[in-house]
Amino acid sequence: MPAVERQTVLEDVVWEVGRTGVLAPTAVLAPVEIDGSTVTRATLHNPADIRRRDLHIGDTVTVYKAGDIIPRVQAAVALLRPAGAKPVPLPEACPRCGGEINTAQERWRCAKGTSCALPALIEYAAGREMLDIDGLGKTYVAALVDSGDVTDVADLFTLTLEQLTAASGSSRRAAKLAEQIEAAKARPLSRVFCALGVLGTGRSMSRRIARHFVTMEAIRRADAAEMQDVEGIGPEKAPVIVEQVAALAPVIDKLIAAGVTLHEPEASATASAGGPLDGKVVVVTGKMAGPLEGFGRTEMNALIEKAGGRAGSGVSARTSVLVCAPSASGKPSSKAVKAAELGVEVLTPEAFAELVADYLP
After folding, report:
1. Can you give the pLDDT at residue 2?
2. C-alpha span between 9 and 24 (Å, rounded)
């Protein structure tokens, strides 16, 4: 079934430097409701894609949710283009540092590479689903990077109260940040590995790598052939991951010296076979309740994998189970409609929790 599409106005395009140095464009939209949520921003791919789509500021554009999750701009409605509308301007300098842009590939990058992307990487690493350093947001990260106190992820764990006070402007906030950073040392390997920002290893892949190798030392020893034993890593991605892990050796050594947890404590509890979800693709939608109350996407995906299944994003013919929480409006979501059309088993959060009760934390 096609994704739900709506029309709205493209008001602006903003550019940011992502954690890998890529210049990422985001569409700013007039608010529009899509599948139960109000959308004001949407993903654009790269400068070449913007030009291929012939997008102009002020255009009426069609917007949809990729995988029923991420809002994306589909196309401009040329017949509704206002007079005098100008094509979306492309950046002439890095939007963060003002330096040169490498335009050799479709995805433009800051010529300074990861040094310019460092604030985005640190902010990403401190996020709730990685190191979960509550309170360490964009403003404080920028201050720590600009001061030179943080040059990589590992530097977070050696910050002093004086450095944190200078960055936050408050000794009280600094003390709270210090507590959060100390607690972050106990995060499992999967979260720490994800925080390193290795290309191609988001949250799900980081969990698979951590559960397969169990320790960071084992990951560092792995060659490309051994890396391919991890589900989802093929012959092209494996050597890239191995190379990047090797390049991160100084950072990993600093993490070890700081006393950061570099093993996966739940690896032994993972059910690779024989679990209740063995061989099943599970999709989750809505706000979880009952025993699963407070579970976000990351926690649900981890639970699915521990019970032997694989987490999916959108409902398709390959989907085995849809975990669907009732909507506040009482109307079925687009995923629930697709599941009914395809005959996919639908479970409430409570029923799913009972199914995987042995794997709940």
Report:
1. 57
2. 20
Q: Which CATH architecture has domain 114-184?
A: Orthogonal Bundle (1.10)
Report the percentage of the chain scoring pLDDT > 90: 54
Given 2.40.50.140, 3.40.50.970, 3.90.470.20, 1.10.443.10, which CATH number is that of 1-112? 2.40.50.140
Alpha carbon separation from 239 to 207, 225, 226, 264 (Å, rounded): 18, 8, 10, 23
What is the C-alpha separation between 338 and 333, in angstroms, rounded?
9
Superfamily of domain covering 281-359: BRCT domain (3.40.50.10190)
pLDDT at residue 321 greater than cutoff 60: yes
H helices of the chain, in order, are: 47-52, 114-125, 138-146, 161-168, 171-184, 189-195, 203-213, 216-221, 224-227, 237-247, 249-257, 297-306, 334-342, 349-355
User: Can you tell me the distance from the alpha carbon of 111 to that of 101, in angstroms, rounded to the nearest whole number?
Assistant: 5
Domain map of the chain by residue range? 1-112, 114-184, 189-267, 281-359
- pLDDT, tens digit, for every residue of 193-228? 999 988 778 888 998 899 889 999 999 999 999 999
Q: Does domain 189-267 have CATH number 1.10.150.20?
A: yes
Q: What is the pLDDT of residue 164?
A: 95
The answer to whether domain 1-112 and domain 189-267 are alike in fold is no
Confidence label for 311 from pLDDT (cuts 50, 70 and 90): confident
Eight-class DSSP state of 78:
G
